[in-house]
Design brief:
Helix content: 55-70%
Distance between the termini: 115 Å
Number of helices: 27
Strand content: 5-15%
Number of domains: 4
Length: 651
């Protein structure tokens, strides 16, 4: 059966005239046959280039099959085929170019092309040309991703050739940027590298710094005499300076084998004690070993006799350091390249610093908006009523849990948030009115009792939340359109949730100002705040205004709770994380003044972020420093940034 199969295959393969079986790609392979058969990395390049540049439709498949070791050559005439091993002794052949199946044959008359890793890498670089010019934009993008991850010198020419014909503007921009990055790393032309480096001056991309930093990396070198003139030296180091302590310099000499090790005095004493013979050590009487110089002479005699390792004396150390030069050598040998890289990196560092400041400012504004939302309700109750409400944080917690419950009932996260915001306001408004009617109204002008009562209510509300929802943190999921962040560049970014909170804070600021400045209710609130007795004499009911003000402040706290819960886990202790900052915001800004609250939130937000930037590893220290600063601030301005005239100001 095997003989019959071989005969049929022979007749099939050789029964047709050679011209009928010849294809353009086969003809090209035959032209490069000698180089392919040699299969040497040093000589195979022209054959691979000929295939890649041929423009033949089958060239890409040939390179791919060759790389995958699926290219076979017939021994009798040197023709090439695609081959698939059916079993250990049988091969299924496919005609190159036409893709025609030629049947199964014994594999003993065929040689498999087995490119080594070096040749496979060269083939891979050639295949990049096809991928970079593929009609599918996704394939071209994948090729660019691959080059960006692991670029090679062989990719540079293919990338340059593909730029002119790129129709997609975004992909063309990526190709041009990647070409400049590869030029920096692999182009042998110094002028081209310098031009590419200069184009990245001030660029914030991480890929630019990744390409530039290796050029200015240094290696510390020590040589006898003066530094060589043909090396690209970053700086010459003087032994004993701050940059190169003498001990470190001598260690470099020892490591390079240019000087013997220097032993400590304790090591020398131990070695001498171990070699005492007849009252002498190295020919020196033990009684005479009363100085470092004498001990050095004795140790040197032992070293000369080969009884101990050679060790340098202090004088020899100084002489060795003086006889050698120490310097840092750039990794890139071309001074023009390293000078351009240093200049570009300096410009990048300056721009990165400015953008880090902008990023820190955005973080501070975001934090200030959160504190403003948390404190605006407290500013209302504290400013209008003079009530220190220690349960204000629990109203924030109630708002967050309201959002969580709504999301359990309404799976659509966008709709659930839209429902939760007014519902949280309504629930906490009602809770605030109830608290004012049942407790606060009986404790006016008794600040200590009010503080203790609201603190007790705070504990009770926390325990009630634990009994209902448990101690496990509950998620308040943001809608999909709030996922991710607004990325301005590789340094500056801000999450969409924080942007939404910032916008919400501005909305509440505008709404509060409208109510207070454009409505009769706001006029009455301002009247009661400034002079409650005069307001009562004008027909205004201060108790009703107090009730409304407390409810309004509590309702705003509930809305703040929904916003805060979008990025913080909802727990019964959520409010405690913001009550201290809320009080500080109100006190620093000025009790009862909305603009003062806004300024106080900004001051505390910027202060906290600034301290965290200076001491990023210790957030507790940042909180402590911030509180100390606030205490010091109040000593000089006890009424806050904007002092309020009226009852809350003590008038």
């Amino acid at each position: 059966m095997r003989i019959l199969l071989a005969a049929l295959s022979f007749l099939y393969l050789f029964g047709l005239p050679a011209a009928a079986q010849e294809t353009p790609i086969q003809a090209l392979l035959q032209e490069q046959r000698d180089l392919i058969e040699q299969s040497s990395r040093r000589t195979i390049g022209p054959a691979i280039d000929a295939l890649a540049e041929s423009g033949l439709p089958a060239a890409q498949e040939v390179l791919e099959r060759w790389q995958d070791k699926a290219l076979w050559q017939r021994e009798s005439d040197g023709r090439f085929f695609f081959g698939e091993e059916v079993d250990r002794d049988t091969l299924r052949l496919i005609e190159i170019g036409s893709g025609e199946a030629l049947g199964e044959v014994p594999d003993d008359g065929y040689d498999q092309l087995r490119p080594n890793s070096g040749i496979r890498a060269m083939i891979g670089a050639a295949l990049v040309r096809f991928q970079l010019n593929d009609p599918d934009p996704a394939t071209r993008a994948e090729a660019l991703d691959s080059i960006a991850r692991d670029g090679e010198a062989a990719h540079l020419a293919a990338l340059r050739d593909s730029i002119a014909g790129e129709a997609d503007p975004a992909l063309k921009a990526r190709k041009e940027r990647l070409e400049r990055l590869l030029t920096i790393s692999f182009d042998p032309d110094s002028a081209a590298r310098v031009a590419a480096i200069q184009s990245f001056a001030g660029d914030l991309g991480v890929d630019a710094r990744a390409a530039l930093n290796p050029l200015v990396a240094t290696t510390r070198v020590v040589v006898a005499g003066q530094p060589p003139e043909d090396e690209n030296i970053a700086r010459v180091l003087a032994p004993g300076s701050e940059a190169l302590p003498a001990q470190e310099a001598y260690a470099l000499l020892v490591e390079a084998g240019l000087a013997p090790p220097r032993l400590g005095r304790g090591d020398i004493r131990a070695a001498l004690a171990a070699h005492v013979e007849n009252g002498r050590v190295g020919g020196v009487p033990v009684a005479a070993l009363d100085s470092d110089a004498a001990r050095d002479r004795a140790y040197a005699a032992l070293a000369e006799a080969g009884r101990v390792p050679a060790a340098a004396t202090a004088a020899e150390v100084e002489a060795a350091l003086a006889a050698h030069s120490f310097y840092d050598r750039y990794a890139a040998p071309d001074p023009a390249v390293t000078d351009a890289a240093n200049a570009a990196l300096e410009a990048i560092r300056l721009k990165v610093g400015l953008n880090q400041a902008a990023d820190l400012t955005l973080d501070a504004l975001s934090l200030a908006s959160i504190y403003f939302l948390a404190a605006i309700g407290l500013a209302v109750t504290f400013g209008v009523m003079g009530v220190i409400n220690m349960a204000h944080g629990e109203f924030i917690m109630m708002g967050a849990y309201t959002g969580y419950v709504v999301q359990q009932l309404v799976p659509d996260y966008t709709l659930s948030i839209l429902i939760a915001l007014p519902l949280a306001f309504a629930i906490t408004f009602g809770a605030g009115v109830a608290m004012e009617r049942l407790v606060i109204r009986w404790l006016y002008n008794r600040p200590l009792e009010t503080l203790l009562a609201t603190f007790g209510i705070s504990i009770a509300l926390q325990q009630l939340a634990k009994n209902i929802f448990g101690t496990q943190a509950r998620p308040l999921t943001s809608p999909d359109w709030l996922d991710g962040a607004l990325v301005i560049n590789d340094v500056v970014s801000i999450s969409y949730i924080r942007i939404a909170i910032f916008v919400l804070a501005l909305v509440f600021l505008a709404l509060f100002l409208f109510i207070m400045r454009r409505t009769r209710l706001g006029l009455e609130v301002r009247a009661v705040t400034q002079n409650p007795r005069m307001a009562a004499s004008m027909g205004i009911n201060p108790e009703r205004i107090n009730m409304f003000a407390f409810g309004l402040g509590s309702g705003i706290a509930g809305v703040a709770g929904v916003a805060i819960g979008l990025y913080a886990k909802v727990t019964s202790e959520l409010g405690q994380d913001y009550i201290v900052q809320s009080f500080m915001t109100v006190v620093v800004g000025g009790v009862g003044n909305i603009w003062g609250t806004l300024l106080g939130a900004a001051l505390i937000g910027f202060l906290q972020k600034g301290i965290e930037w200076l001491n990023p590893s210790n957030t507790l220290a940042a909180q402590t420093y911030m509180i100390l600063f606030i205490i010091l601030f109040i000593q000089f301005r006890p009424r806050g940034i904007i002092a309020l005239r009226g009852r809350a100001a003590g008038d």
